[in-house]
Amino acid sequence: MKRSTTLSTLALASALALAGCAAGSGESTGAASEQTTPTAAAGAQTGTAAAGATTGAPSEEPVAAEHDDDDVMFAQMMIPHHAQAVQMSETLLAKDDIPTEVRQFAQKVIDAQGPEIERMNSMLEAWGASATPDDADTGHGGHGSGMMTEEDMAALEEAEGEEAARLYLEQMIEHHRGAIDMAREEVSSGGNPQAVELAQEIVDAQEAEIAEMDGMLQELPDQS
Fold it and tell me: InterPro entries in the record, alphabetically (predicted)?
């Protein structure tokens, strides 16, 4: 029962978090942070400045007002994409008998993508944009680009030990490829310099992580 509602809860949590920010009140760490992952909630409580500092961006630098529809779509689509990667990593970390290097990698995904979610929420707030795209725009490809299905997430929840580690790495490689596709599109067509910079950071980091995950897969024992 919990598995069937996980993705919709994440999407709702992201929307509520942005709505709280837009209202300019303390509600951003209320209902939304209760429903999102612990990592994302912690990032929300520290505010946009702390998130910028975590990812190396100047903490006092305001989000540039200059933007286009591609910038908005990039943030709207990448937020739930990142949120699912965080969820996948937290699911793995809750398991026993996971190889140390895979466990460390999953924590690295959480540490990187939680603050990036906060950066993108801040961008949407600054641009006066909603947390989710219009229905007519969902064909842009974001949510479906490398996203795991409910069945995929259920399989990860049920797997244990080295089987779970292998499945996590295989799923995350596909997930990263989808994020890279979206980020490259933003790099080529985005108008906001900060969004374009973030997109390039995602491309660079996740290409390196795919190579890292390929190496870890090779080190796992053969399942035959």
Answer: DUF305_CopM-like (IPR005183), Ferritin-like (IPR012347)
pLDDT digits (tens, 9 = 90+) for 34-69: 334 444 433 433 333 333 333 444 445 899 999 999
Domain that holds residue 208: 47-219
CB within 8 Å of 1: residues ≥ 6 apart:
none
**How many C-alpha atoms does 53 have within 13 Å on its Cβ side?**
8
Q: Determine, yes or no, domain membership for 26.
A: no
Is 0.90 surpassed by the pTM of this model?
no
Overall domain count for the chain:
1
